[in-house]
Write a structure and sequence with these properties.
The structure holds two protein chains of two kinds.
Chain A lengths: L3 E2 L5 E3 L19 E2 L2 E2 H8 L3 E5 H16 L5 E6 L6 H10 L2 E4 L2 H9 L7 E3 L6 H9 L3 E4 L2 H14 L3 E8 L13 E2 L4 H10 L4 E7 L10 H21 L5 E3 L17 H4 L3 H13 L10 E4 L3 H4 L3 E12 L5 E5 L17 E2 L7 E7 L8 E9 L6 E5 L5 H4 L10 E4 L5 E5 L4 H5 L12
Parallel strand pairs in A: 5-21, 6-7, 6-14, 7-8, 8-9, 9-10, 10-11, 10-12, 12-13, 13-14, 16-18
Antiparallel strand pairs in A: 3-4, 5-15, 15-16, 15-20, 17-20, 18-19, 21-22
Chain B lengths: L7 E2 L4 E3 L6 E4 L1 H11 L4 H11 E2 L2 H17 L7
Antiparallel strand pairs in B: 1-2, 2-3
The chains are: A alpha/beta, B alpha+beta.
The structure holds pyridoxal-5'-phosphate.
The site of pyridoxal-5'-phosphate has 16 residues of chain A, from helix 11.
Chain lengths: 450, 81
């Protein structure tokens, strides 16, 4: 007689139907494949864990976002926020779709140049631009978004020395109804600092004021905040027009759209609560169109959307290392993905999906990474099916920030692969080796004894 | 290993502890094991039964079995030894 399929015996206490912190019991979703590629095959060929990026999802998401804006407003330009994910292959896909580059350091600036972006299509943000960085940006006709008065005065000096006009905007911070208010970047709107900076720029011979910029925060759940921000920047543009008869060419409303991830402590999943691209677009473009800016002088709308364009395209897949029972009886599952590779697990409740058939039985489980540190918790409390050692899993929606904010710790960073629209799998960043680290280290002579 | 005698097991894998008032659910294999325990079967008899019926490696079942017994003990469903 053929034997029956086994599953681990389990017992779950019933808690009178009240959802506890582990959430309501839901049907376990499994994910044996990403697009047409078997997760097990990918792990066999590229190691475990491994980051996976879908070119198709990047392109589809970009097109969806672009369409939401371009159908509502005549002039729209996205600039890819490098810090969100600056793998060259990823940047190139965005540039191929029509995105410019938004960078915040000399390192990112040079990356954009080497990805073939012309200097005049680079937006240079952030509080950390060295004099050399500024000089390069002026010479390349990049858009320099001034963060503070010290930078404004550096730039006046540099552009005078080079006898070349610098194209500038200021970053404005403001009360857009968002808490916390990000007031550490740029010049404040409400207290008049932004207006002062604009006046100073208009009086500088070699600075050309081309734009106004703000980035009100990240994972903004209320689309209407963008309407407030757009209206305040429009007001500055109108005042510049009146006083100096000078037309602002673009308004850059930064990034900050929520991705469909679920924030920790949120009651409902992010995919049910976060606004759509259409919601954000509606709010911004209405504010601009209804402002007092004359219709023939409407500025181009720049967007520096990061996480909402890339989160869905990224996955990390890996392997179960062990199961354990904690002293309080709760199950814990240890996986080979730690918080060092999944930085965003500090603020998101990431889904962890089995890559093979499992029973529908689930247990209250804590999922730990392999780091030998107490903070290494991927999910503190999840209803999770019974995975055995060596089973595989997929953590979806991790494309933003994890591949730039990752930390090397006790093991090496893994491969990153791209599922190309050509149907092939491409390694776009090779896993690190012991040499990667050895090569950068130097041994003082007196310690170098055999 | 002995299940407390007053524990009730329903056909659908639902169990009730009349002392604490707590109830639990079991998956089908959990229910089979619990019924065997209720019938005073030994660990060896139970594992032989499972190997006969299911496609599973001995070492994996052994791990899962002791983990399961641990949970029964954690929920105070076993007689004190
Ligand atoms: C200036 C600027 N623009 C754009 C972004 C991208 O933001 P997000 O990923 O929230 O869209 C950031 C992120 O911090 C930023 O600082």
């Amino acid at each position: 007689m053929e034997k029956l399929k086994y599953e681990r015996p389990i017992i779950n206490k019933i808690n009178a139907g009240v959802p506890d912190k582990f959430g309501m019991k839901v049907r376990t979703q499994i994910m044996p494949k990403i697009e047409n590629h078997s997760v097990k095959e990918l792990i066999k060929n590229y190691g475990s864990p491994v980051y996976v990026i879908s070119e198709k999802i990047i392109r589809d998401t970009y097109k969806e976002a672009y369409q939401a804006f371009s159908t509502r407003y005549p002039k729209v330009q996205f600039a890819w926020s490098y810090k969100t994910n600056y793998l060259d292959a990823v940047c190139k896909i965005f540039h191929d779709e029509g995105s410019w580059a938004e960078v915040v350091s000399g390192f990112e600036y040079n990356k954009a140049l080497s990805n073939g972006v012309s200097g005049s299509k680079i937006i240079f943000n952030g509080p950390d631009k060295s004099d050399d960085d500024l000089e390069q940006a002026v010479l390349n006709n990049s858009f320099i978004h001034i963060d503070h008065f010290d930078e404004l005065y550096s730039l006046i000096k540099i552009s005078n020395r080079l006898k070349k006009t610098a194209k500038v905007a200021i970053r404005v911070n403001m009360d857009a109804g968002i808490y916390p208010q990000w007031d550490r970047f740029g010049f404040n709107y409400e207290n008049g600092e932004a207006w002062n900076a604009l006046n100073r720029i208009m009086l500088s011979e070699n600075l050309e004021l081309v734009g106004l910029h703000t980035h009100i925060g990240t994972y903004i759940m209320t689309a209407s905040a963008y309407g407030v921000a757009a209206a305040k920047l429009a007001d500055l543009a109108v005042r510049v027009q009146k006083k100096f008869n000078h037309t602002i060419k673009y308004i850059d409303l930064g990034g900050g759209f929520a991705s469909k991830n679920t924030l920790k402590g949120a009651y409902l999943p992010g995919k049910d609560t976060c606004p759509s691209f259409d919601d954000y677009a509606e709010s911004m473009t209405n504010a601009l169109i209804n402002s007092e800016i004359e219709p023939d002088k409407l500025p181009t709308l720049f967007l520096e959307t990061g996480r909402a364009l890339i989160d869905d395209a990224g996955y990390i897949i890996g392997t179960v290392l062990a199961n354990k029972r904690l002293a309080n009886g709760r199950r814990s599952t240890i996986i080979d993905v730690g918080v060092n590779l999944l930085f965003t697990s500090f603020w998101y409740e990431h889904d962890v999906l089995p890559a093979q058939e499992t029973s529908q039985q689930t247990e209250d489980t804590t999922i730990y990474g392999p780091l030998c540190m107490n903070i290494d918790v991927i999910r503190a409390a999840i209803q999770f099916p019974l995975l055995q050692k060596d089973d595989n899993f997929v953590i979806p929606r991790i494309g933003a920030y994890n591949m730039t904010q990752w930390m090397q710790f006790i093991t090496l960073r893994p491969n990153i692969i791209l599922l190309g629209v050509d149907g092939n799998v491409h390694v776009i960043r090779e896993k690190e080796t012991s040499e990667t680290f050895k090569n950068a280290e130097k041994m003082p002579k007196h310690l170098d004894k055999k | 290993m002995k299940l407390k005698s007053n524990i009730a097991i329903s056909d659908s894998g639902f169990i009730f502890d009349p002392v604490s008032g707590d109830s639990y659910t079991l998956n089908p294999i959990g229910k089979e094991i619990l019924s065997l325990l209720k019938g005073n079967k030994s660990d060896k008899e139970i594992s032989d039964f499972i190997f006969e019926k299911y496609d599973i490696e001995e070492s994996i079942f052994e791990k899962n079995y002791y983990d399961f017994i641990g949970m029964l003990s954690h929920h105070n469903l076993l007689e004190e030894l």
